[in-house]
Design brief:
Elements (H helix, E strand, L loop, with lengths): L2 H20 L5 H21 L1 H24 L2 H5 L22 E4 L6 E6 L2 E7 L9 E8 L2 E6 L4
Parallel strand pairs: 3-5
Antiparallel strand pairs: 1-2, 1-4, 2-3, 4-5
Length: 156
Amino acid sequence: MGYISLILLILLGIVLMILDFLVIPGGVVAILGVLCMIGGVVTSFVQFGTTVGILTLVLTAVITFGSFWLMMRTKTWRKLQLKTQIDSKMNEIDSNKLKEGMEGVAISRLAPTGTGLFGDTEAEVVSMQGFIDENSPILIHKIEGSKIIVEAIHQN
């Protein structure tokens, strides 16, 4: 293994670590990157001796920390991160509009969660007995915090 292949192995390790940091979370790619760098440094010790091995180790460390420092300083990671703001809220139950025992209709299939319409108020609801088809009449059985539990009204 020559100098060029050692340099390429170490650079591959650095690139894999940066990819793990920015794009592919989970740590597996970073571990592969560290193994590539360790392999390159150990190979340089074995093939070229202590002086070249130490030089390779120091240069690998400097280049690795320098590339991460440069990446953070130039805010590269900010260009890649998501900037979407979530403005939605959980069910805010208005006790004047929704009460236990109130009848409504399922405006989506409850499997077991879906949307119910009670008067002019739409709310996310949970079926207590499993699936309820769309447009089926429902009844508010219980309200627990922001969770509205409904049951189907069986028509005779």
